Automatic annotation (TrEMBL):
It holds the Pfam family GGDEF. SUPFAM superfamilies: GAF domain-like, Nucleotide cyclase. Transmembrane segments: none annotated. Residues 199-331 form the GGDEF domain. GO terms for molecular function: diguanylate cyclase activity. This is diguanylate cyclase. InterPro entries: Diguanylate_Cyclase, GAF, GAF-like_dom_sf, GGDEF_dom, Nucleotide_cyclase, Rev_trsase/Diguanyl_cyclase. PANTHER family: DIGUANYLATE CYCLASE DGCM-RELATED, REGULATORY COMPONENTS OF SENSORY TRANSDUCTION SYSTEM.
Amino acid sequence: MIDTRLSDPKLNDEQGRVLALQRYQILDTPREAPFDRIAGLVKAVMQVPIAIISLIDSERQWFKSCIGMGDTTETTREVSFCTHTIQAREPLYIPDARLDPRFATNPLVTGAPFIRSYVGVPLCTPDGYNVGSLCAIDTIPREYTPSQIEVLKSFAALAAEELELRRVAQIDFVTGAATRRGFTVEVDKAIARYGRYARSSALLVLDLDHFKKVNDTWGHAAGDAVLRAVGAKLNALLRATDVLGRLGGEEFGILLAEATLRDASRSAERFRKAIEAIEIENDPPIKVTASFGISAIGPEHATADQWLAEADLALYAAKRGGRNRSCIAPSSAETQLSRPA
């Protein structure tokens, strides 16, 4: 058998492959209907008890959709069938895992879910990296026809396209920030990290003051120029681990990783002054200010919507207080400002 990895460098480029996966910003995100629909169709059409959309990180296999294995969300790479699938361009087909020396002693074969047959198709990015697989799994030995495997390949192409559509939908073309959808995905991931590892983070929501007047006075082209300038300025000030999102109109969100409430308050003031200093070329030049709401993560934030709503309340308080200022959400102030620095 010819090892295709010798003539296909990207199958050997593990660092590039992991970076390609990270561009999708999908690991540890909640379940999404498009992926569950694809896995559900695979289960029905292939008549198998288990169907999985699996993504391979550097040290683990993570399931974007997993139907038929309960609440399982990930495994180590060592036991992953998918790790073998991504090493080639063609599907990996195993009629009986107990007869295959690569898998006969695998704990997923000898124990639950007792995998016997497996067929997986790699999920390939447009630039040629296999980031995961779509697989059909049975607990009995199975023979699949070439036409059945072609059907699975078609479903895998749909899953790969969904990954791309998801990525494109997460970038706002005016400001270069994440869209609201993309931003809330990152906020949900921060909430998950807090629940699992107690990792701190903070959320800023900002709104440009009297932005309607900019559009009404100078037109929407001038308004877009202001939004682009604000997006560029904020992106330049953020750390690589922070996330900027455009939540709608002239409202932005900033997720500050590993940040305390005090860190967030200092950052908000820095961002506020930077926006205040922006001057858009016009006659006369256009200047804007922004109001900020600040909220640090806590156990009361179960979803992105809940956390954003709390930061929004603080933003409204800043607006009522005279604009061009920041306010801290009451629950954050009560639980965190009292802590020692």
